[in-house]
Amino acid sequence: MTMLLRVEHETSYEYVPMVRTAQHMAHLKPADRDGQKLLRHELAIAPEPAQCTESIDVFGNTRSFFSLEYAHDFLQVRAESLVATAARAQPADSLPWEDAAESMRYHRTALYDPAAEFAFASPYVPRDDAFAEYARASFAPGRPLLDAARALMHRIHADFEYETTATDVNTPALEALALRKGVCQDLAHVMLGCLRSLGLPARYVSGYLLTEPAPGRPRLLGSDASHAWVGVYLPTPQGRGSWVDLDPTNERLAGEDYVTLAIGRDYSDVSPMRGVIHGGANHSLRVAVTVAPAEQVAAPGTPRKTRDE
Q1: At CA 294, angle to CA 88 and CA 254, rounded to 5?
Q2: Per-residue pLDDT of the chain in tens (309 residues, 90 and over written 9)
Q3: Which residues are bridge partners to 231 per DSSP?
Q4: Distance between CA atoms of 271 and 169, rounded to whole angstroms?
Q5: CB 147 within 8 Å of CB 232
Q6: Are 69 and 19 in contact (CB under 8 A)?
Q7: How far apart are CA 159 and CA 180, in angstroms?
Q8: Which residue, of 41, 71, 121, 231, has the greatest Cβ tally within 10 A?
């Protein structure tokens, strides 16, 4: 099955006092890989930046750099993308998880597998005995890795309460594990910590998920949110393996209703917006995301409200 999805992601800041100068980096351009084709992408920034450039990071993500070299009291960054997605083929089987972990260990004569880099600790996700202890209930000796990873996903979904006020973007994964609460970012970080603490490569995937309105209700523009899930690496005896995306928040495999934005070790690698500003000691932030089938979203050029309306 294939889908044609339109994604609108708008970030707005209001500053008091005014910001004198600013430099920002954004990960807002969907990936063009893994059963996903980027058909169109537009990035609109107001006020108009002095410069705006694109580059590819070490993980293959597209990132945009822009600077504002004059005083401003607001910033609006709007990304609009049209993406064709397809159902992703899933492997029928996988190695026992111990064999998979062993294949990622360094040996002098072993072939290098780039996925091994995702088995190490990262800024938000350390390797820790607490993660390994939680994971072991799902990782019985000899259990196939894919089966064990899916069991871990089910347990995280059952054990953790989805609570938007329990954490923030800076909450470490170990704290989320202790709280047993959090949002999609936290659940993804916990799952990453569990897998990596067993020596298994796993990566953070940021993106979007198509959500359906209640029966008889219209789709609300700007009511969705960005999402996060986990890519699990399945090595093979023959060489390079494959990645399978698991979503502990929704207890399912990622499908054609998912749009991949960027991949990294954790949230710190792929945050949608970050920057350095001079001034603007106080600010307010508003983020609006819409993901919808292309035919259900207003065509380009449709009048929209501005900050003054």
Answers
A1: 25
A2: 789 999 999 999 999 999 999 999 999 999 998 789 999 999 999 999 999 999 999 999 999 999 999 999 999 999 999 999 998 878 878 999 999 999 998 877 777 899 999 999 999 999 999 999 999 999 999 999 999 999 999 999 999 999 999 999 899 999 999 999 999 999 999 999 999 999 999 999 999 999 887 777 777 666 688 999 999 999 998 777 999 999 999 999 999 999 999 999 999 999 999 999 999 999 999 999 999 999 754 443 433 333 333
A3: 203, 245
A4: 9
A5: no
A6: no
A7: 7
A8: 231
Length of the chain: 309
Alpha helix positions (H), the chain: 97-103, 129-135, 145-159, 173-179, 184-197, 267-270
* CA diameter of the chain: 65
State the Cα–Cα distance between residues 254 and 245, nearest whole angstrom: 6
List the end-to-end C-alpha distance of the chain, in Å, as a whole number.
41
For residue 118, the SS3 value is helix
- Evaluate whether 128 touches 197 at the Cβ level (below 8 Å): yes
Tokens 């298994």 belong to which residue? 200
